Amino acid sequence: MKHASSIEVQRVSKRYTDDPEVAPALDEVSVSIRSNEFFTLLGPSGCGKTTLLRSIAGFEQVSAGSIHIGGQRVDELPPYKRRVNTVFQSYALFPHMSVAENIAFGLEMQGLARGEIPARVKEMLALVQMEHLARRRPAELSGGQQQRVALARALAPRPDVLLLDEPLSALDLKLRKEMQVELKRVQQEAGITFIFVTHDQEEALTLSDRIAVMASGRILQIGSPSEIYERPKHPFVAHFIGDINFLPGQIRQCPQNGRLFRPDGIPVDIPCAHDGDAPSGRAQLAFRPERSKLVEPGEPHHLRGVIEAVLYVGTATLYQCRLANDLKVMLRESNEGAVSARTPGSSVAVQLPPHACLLMEA
Ligand code: ATP
C-alpha cells in the first residue's frame, strides 16, 4: 500500500468570527509536510492544532491561504474529494456492526467493487493484527482494540494522508505506550503520510519524524524531535518540551567560537556554544536539568547554590536549588545504582558545558 502524498500549507489563516477582538485560530500558518512522513502538530489546548487538521481534511473552510495535497490545490474542495481520512479521538465506530463490517463500511461508500471488499478487509485486519476478532462488536473490545479497528477503517479506502486527532488520549498510560509503537509500525507498513495531533510532548518526541510546535494560532518551530529538544529556538518551545531552566542576564562578548553569558547578580562568565540565531545584549540562558553537572563546591564550576528539595524519581534524582541571587533551578543527576547522598541544605556547585547552554531572547 503506497499512496503517500506531500502537503503544502501556505499562509493559512482561519477566523471563526469577524470580531477583531478575537485572535484568529490560525494566523498565517505555513508548513510543508513530506510524503510518507509521520508529522506531529504539538501545542497546548486552544493553539489551533485541531483547526489546522480540520482545514486539511476539509471540515473547515480557511479564511485565507492555500492547501495543496500531492500537488493539487484542495482548499476549495469538499472533504470527500480530498484523498484524506481522519481517525477521531472518540473512534466513532458503529456499535451495531462487527469489526469486519465497520472496516467494510467505508469501502462500500467509496464504491469499491463488492468482490474486492473481503480481501481489503482481510488485509486491513492483518495490518492492525485483529484477524481473530473480526466478528466481534465494538462493545466486546478493549479500548486499544477499538483504536485498532478505527485505524483499520480509516486506512481501508487507501487515503494518501491519514489525519489523527489525539487518537490515543482515551487510553491508559500503559496501553497508550503500546499503541504508540503500533501506530508507528502501521504508518511504516502502510507507507503513507500521517499528520498526528497531540498536546503530549513525550508522545510527539517518540513517534514523529518531525514536529511543528504551535502556540496561539502560529507555528513557532518545525524540526526533528532531537532538533526541537536540543535546539529550541523559542523560550516557549524550550519550556513546552521537557524541563528547562532559564537565567536572565547579558551576553558579554562575542569571541569567534562562542559567547559569554553573565547571569544577573552572579559574577561569572559562562561560555556558550555558538548558535547563529543567538540574540545579543539582554538574553536568557536556558539549560536542561540533566545537561548540567553537579560537582563539589571546591571543584571548578559556573554556578553555586543550596539544595532546597530532593526528589527521587527512580533512574535519577532531581534537586531544586537556590542560587546566589535567589534564582531557582532544577538539576538532575542520574542515580546509576546508588542513592544520592545530597540532602536539603547542602551546598552544590554546577558545571555547565558549553553545549548545554542555549541563548534565547529575554
Ligand atoms: P485542544 O487541544 O484543546 O483540542 P486545539 O489546539 O486543537 O485545542 P483548536 O480546537 O483548533 O485548538 O482551537 C483554536 C482556537 O479556535 C481556540 O481559541 C478555540 O476556542 C477556537 N475555536 C475552535 N473551534 C471553534 C468554533 N467552531 N467556533 C469558534 N471558535 C472556535
Task: Describe the 3D structure.
- The protein has 362 residues and is an alpha+beta fold.
- Helix content is 23%, strand content 31%.
- The chain is built from eight helices and 20 strands.
- Strands 6-7-8-3-9-10 form a six-stranded mixed β-sheet, with helices on both faces. Strands 13-12-11-14-20 form a five-stranded antiparallel β-sheet.
- Strand 16 (303-312) and strand 17 (316-323) form a beta hairpin.
- The structure holds adenosine-5'-triphosphate.
Structural class: alpha+beta
How many helices? The count is: 8
Q: Any idea what the CATH superfamily of the largest domain is called?
A: P-loop containing nucleotide triphosphate hydrolases
What value does the Rg take, in angstroms?
25 Å
Helical residue percent? 10-25%
How is the main sheet built?
Answer: 6 strands, mixed
> What percentage of the residues does DSSP assign to strands (E)?
25-35%
Element string (H = helix, E = strand): EEEHEEEHHHEHEHEEHHEEEEEEEEEE
What are the distinct ligands in this entry?
A: adenosine-5'-triphosphate
Average per-residue pLDDT, rounded, comes to: 90
Global outline: elongated
CATH topology of the largest domain: Rossmann fold
Strands ordered across the widest β-sheet: 6-7-8-3-9-10
Separation of the first and last Cα atoms: 49 Å
- CATH level-two architecture of the largest domain: 3-Layer(aba) Sandwich
Q: What is the level 1 CATH name of the largest domain?
A: Alpha Beta
The structural domain count equals 2
